[in-house]
Amino acid sequence: FLTAQKLNTRAIEVYDGAGTQTFSGAGSSVVVNLDSTYYNGDNSLFKLNADQVNVSENGWYKITYTSCVNQIGGGGGNQRESPQSWIRKNGNTNISLSFSYAGYTRNSGNDQDKNCNRANTLINLTSGDYLELQTGIFDTETGNTMGLTQDQSWLLIEKVEMDSSIISINNSGQQMDHGTPTAVSFDFNDKLGNYVSHTGSNSEITFKKSGLYEISYNIGYQDSQTGDRVITCGYLRKNGNTNINPSKQCIYTRGDAQAKTGTVSTTSIINVSKDDYIEIMLNVTGEVGTNEYVQVQKGTTWFTVVKINETVSSNWKNTSLDIGTTP
Predict the structure, then answer these.
(1) What are phi and psi of 96, to 5 degrees?
(2) Which pLDDT belongs to residue 318?
């Protein structure tokens, strides 16, 4: 599916025009060389300075990134490596709700050695703060595998002007079993806006105001380490019975130690009525039997809700944005 909306002009998009940085071994990382500006809608608000994007106003910012890597080296073929990416603030603070794990790469040819991390999140910044995109190796099958950044990496930062929320989890371990679509339970309101409600430890996010909303989710997990190939899909469900078709994203992992970590992440636009609620669902399938499962992980699991300005076009009322199926 494809979503599109008029961009807030108070935004900046920067990218890596070269893709030549290397990193080696589990835990290693580099600051991605974001050396080029594709768009800057407010030069007084955003500045790109040596891979760092500086902001000059307090407030909440919407962050979207993609960071692509190529696995190189590693003492022979078929060595697995799990890449990771995240946002770092002011050179010393990792933003916990920004981590993404693409699944894994494998240096066995046929482009299995390439993968991309991606995430969407909200960050509260103070004037003078700066952000960097960090990419590295989470885990590796052998100590001498290496990663190489790719020129497909980019970072979009947008000043949030509308009502927004970000909700996450405090505890890892919720188990999602094979073939049983299950709603992710959230238990921490990092920022709760005026237009949604969420209480306690539950999966339902209720809307107080009808209209259009941009929903982004990021669900990090580890699979059951059985050695089986596991496919994990995330999607939105409305009012307990309607799947939002343009919200599905799937990631492939394998239960070996270096290939078990993944993240499903996407952004969708939905049209809701007052008192509607949504949930983020996970569905796990695999190649052998029915014993596969995944466990949701703290620090890589959250969702954001941003109210969309509906005054830009009268055609929205004639557009079906959330046609779904009833399971």
Answers:
(1) -60, -40
(2) 36
